[in-house]
Write a structure and sequence with these properties.
Elements: H1 5-11, H2 18-24, H3 28-33, H4 43-64, H5 70-80, H6 83-92, H7 103-132
Amino acid sequence: MKDFSKLEKDLKLEFKDKDLLTQAFCHRSYLNENSNFSLEHNERLEFLGDAVLELVVTKLLYLEYPKTSEGELTAWRAALVNADSLAQAARELNFNDYLIFNYKIWFIYSYILTFKFNLKSFILFIFYLFFSKGYF
């Protein structure tokens, strides 16, 4: 399985639940080719990750900008929590190095999947951090 020690070192974090982290980076396509894999794919975690990311950004904006209107805060949140910015953050953190998926699919759809996997990996990593710290 993937070795997350470099990611831990780069982010100055210690991941306690490696199975949950592995699941967060595991795409459904991998399970199609590896039926004996012991973990589930990450789609349900992504559902929670989307909500967690929006909550975290909302709270930060709310606390940092107490005199800003709801409409302006909503626009700022939308600008921060968008596909392009999340995919870019995942690229900068080298999350592609940790993705677990069927490599046959990668060769066929590499351009589209690079963006999509970067986006998903960032959302799932945020979920993992939130969950592993006991907030859920």
